[in-house]
Design goal:
It is built from 12 helices and 9 strands. With about 325 residues, the protein is an alpha/beta fold. It has one domain: NAD(P)-binding Rossmann-like Domain (Rossmann fold), CATH 3.40.50. The strands form 2 sheets. A 7-stranded parallel sheet has the order 3-2-1-4-7-8-9, sandwiched between helices. Helix 5 runs antiparallel to helix 7 and helix 7 packs antiparallel against helix 9. About 45% of the residues are buried. It binds NADP nicotinamide-adenine-dinucleotide phosphate (NAP). The site of NADP nicotinamide-adenine-dinucleotide phosphate has 32 residues, from helix 1 and helix 5. GO terms for molecular function: (+)-neomenthol dehydrogenase activity. Its EC number is 1.1.1.208. It is an enzyme of class 1 (oxidoreductase). InterPro entries: NAD(P)-bd_dom_sf, SDR_fam.
Length: about 325
């Protein structure tokens, strides 16, 4: 049962990529970590890779499945009695690629340039022959995983986090969710007007995006094309990923207001070589998790409600 001096963490989507590495690094710093993954077989594979660490325990968790979330709550409650750190890491890109996958890297790099230019970058032309394909199924999964999944796990585990003397939540988000990359002025206004922001308003943005997407795509698997998506100025590529990470950042701020005793932040790990990026990007998994791990171990009194880029997180002095 719970040891008052021990810290307990749960990391979602942790069978590979940044989630796996966050578990490994937290465990090597003495935290008892629940490595959670949606697929039992992948849980076993992860267990095999970390067998030398006796402070990692394993549990199935599909963040889109409320019964699975309830089961992980019961597991942590009965095994540790509380939770100190929750890392909402599970995520999908919500887009597939037809042809040369380096097209994804080109778009991400162009978005990073645009972000640095405050959203004012020059129009850019893709060189790779591949095409990004956003299907209704992929977008629906992205909505359920990247936004509602993180919300569902957070809300279920709040009672266990409230029993910690120094609780913290890290939402693994993305620069691509920054509002400068949102062409839709209504979305920018709703998500940036902190004084009037509510969970219902964030959900409204998500549902509006989904409705417009459904209008255009029912029966189609083609790429972004003329219709509601264009008329309403949703992002022309990686739309679901950008909208849902923007929603996650807004939810992070709201949750921090609602639970002032919990340190809750969203952080971008940086562009890293994992499956979600088809292993493109300048950062290794080990480098990418530096920022999320730092945010997970922030001492009491650190920032809360923020979205931080990797470099901002790494330059925090606490
Ligand atoms: N890599 C980057 O450049 C980058 C940049 C910014 C943000 N991020 C964010 O970092 C997080 C981790 O991504 P990654 O780079 O490590 O990619 P990854 O290697 O593809 O890992 C994604 C993880 O999420 C899991 N997952 C997906 N849907 C899930 C669900 N319904 N329930 C539970 N787990 C689920 C995957 O499990 P399966 O193996 O079962 O699919 C996998 O373990 C994501 O939130 C991503 O948006 C990554």
């Amino acid at each position: 049962m719970a040891d008052a001096t021990q810290r307990y963490a749960l990391v979602t989507g942790a069978n590979k990529g940044t989630g796996f590495e966050i578990c490994r690094q937290l465990a090597s710093k003495g935290v008892v970590v629940v490595l959670a993954a949606r697929d039992e077989k992948r849980v076993i594979e992860a267990r095999e890779k970390l067998k030398e660490l006796d402070n990692v325990v394993f549990h199935q968790l599909d963040v889109v499945d409320p019964a699975s979330v309830a089961a992980v709550f019961e597991f942590i409650k009965s095994k540790f009695g509380r939770l100190d750190i929750l890392v909402n890491n599970a995520g999908i890109r919500g887009v597939e690629v037809d042809g040369d996958v380096s097209v994804l890297q080109e778009y991400i790099e162009a978005d990073n340039v645009s972000f640095l230019a405050g959203g004012q970058a020059e129009p850019f032309h893709v060189k790779a022959s591949g095409k990004l394909i956003e299907t209704l199924k992929g977008v629906d999964e992205c909505v359920e995983t990247n936004y509602y999944g993180a919300k569902r796990v957070t809300e279920a585990l709040i009672p266990l986090l409230q029993l910690s003397h120094s609780p913290r939540i890290v939402n693994v988000s993305s620069t691509l969710g920054c509002l400068v990359l949102q062409p839709n002025e209504w979305v920018k206004r709703v998500l940036s007007s902190k004084g009037r922001l509510t969970e219902e308003r964030v959900d409204e943005v998500v549902q509006q995006f989904l409705n417009n997407f459904c209008c255009d795509k029912i029966g189609h698997t083609s790429n972004f094309k003329e219709g509601k998506l264009e008329e309403k100025q949703w992002p022309p590529h990686l739309a679901a990923y950008k909208v849902l990470k923007a929603a996650l950042n807004a939810y992070t701020w709201l949750a921090a207001q609602k639970y002032p005793n919990i340190c809750i932040n969203a952080v971008c790990p940086g562009f890293a070589r994992t499956d979600i990026t088809f292993n493109a990007g300048p950062l290794s998994e080990v480098e990418a998790v530096e920022a999320p791990v730092k945010m997970a171990l922030l001492p009491y009194g650190g920032p809360s409600g923020s979205f931080l880029h990797r470099s901002d997180a790494l330059s925090l002095t606490f």
